């Protein structure tokens, strides 16, 4: 059938809508493999790459994402492929490559909804490479630019700001920033990191009882106890 690529594509997306993602992958796979000239190729390749990333099959995810970056110019696909490539680089602790990919996303897809996440990725790469001055500048700018429409990103950015302030021994500023996270997003998954900053700040002001309480919350959290 000349339109077999369209049949595979629509069938796969119907399965996704029905929550049958594993079956959908078996249809996206031949569409990716056998129909590279199809207008549906990129739209089939992206979910394959994302699925591989979620399964921590980083080699396959990176290969598929690289194919997308090389072969598509569609902004709605290119930005997601670049972001996914950056995530894979972060997962492999390849901070310079991650920063390069996120910077390309900002340059090639300036209107992308993923822009704040890419900016976070660049700042995180600086932080992980011990460029604390550069990281502080980037996270500080991002903290002023984003709102709480994405509470996870908002909390993650402010956590880094608090950690960087504590590195400079600006205890009161760090405590104020960390306290905002606790107040506005108490269910933050990295709450134990926030509580650790709070403990350090309270220790610095000689509030040892408060510091002990903060450290106890770290120990009692399922993530923090590790």
Structure description:
With 226 residues, the protein is mainly α. It is 77% helix and 0% strand. It is built from 12 helices and no strands. It has helices at 4-17, 21-34, 41-54, 58-71, 75-91, 95-108, 115-128, 132-145, 151-167, 171-184, 191-204, 208-220. The longest helix is centred in the middle third of the chain and has 17 residues, at 75-91. The termini are far apart. The relative contact order is 0.06. The model has no long low-confidence stretch (mean pLDDT 94).
Structure described in brief:
Helices cover 77% and strands 0% of the residues. By secondary structure, it is an all-alpha fold. The radius of gyration is 21 Å and the shape is elongated.
Task: Write down the oligomeric state.
Answer: single chain
Radius of gyration in whole Å, from Cα? Answer: 21 Å
Arithmetic mean pLDDT = 94
- Straight-line N-to-C gap: 56 Å
The number of distinct β-strands equals: 0
Task: Count helical runs.
Answer: 12
Low-confidence stretches are none
Shape: elongated
Task: Tell me the strand percentage band.
Answer: under 5%
User: Structural class of the secondary elements?
Assistant: mainly alpha
Task: For this entry, give a set of tags.
mainly alpha; single chain; 12 helices; 77% helix; 226 residues
Helices and strands in order:
Elements: H1 4-17, H2 21-34, H3 41-54, H4 58-71, H5 75-91, H6 95-108, H7 115-128, H8 132-145, H9 151-167, H10 171-184, H11 191-204, H12 208-220
